[in-house]
Amino acid sequence: MTADGEVVGIVTAIMNPTDQRVFIGIGFAVPIETAARSAGISPF
User: Fold this and answer.
1) Of 7, 12, 28, 36, which has the highest C-beta tally within 10 A?
2) Is residue 18 within 8 Å of 24, Cβ to Cβ?
């Protein structure tokens, strides 16, 4: 999200190398334009 509250991407997967319930790993995201196109809607 930007400081203006605009969404710029969506988290699609989180890789957590441990069994702990806290996040210590890598998050993968896609740009909002790609996510919107996949859903069949306009991002703007």
Assistant:
1) 36
2) yes
Rg (CA), the chain: 14
The one-letter code for the residue type at 1 is M
Tell me how far the alpha carbon of residue 17 is from its chain's centroid: 19
Q: How many CA atoms lie within 13 A of 43 on its CB side?
A: 14
Domain that holds residue 25: 9-39
Q: Which of 37, 34, 26 is nearest to 9 (CA)?
A: 34
Domain count within the chain: 1
Answer yes or no: is 23 within a domain: yes
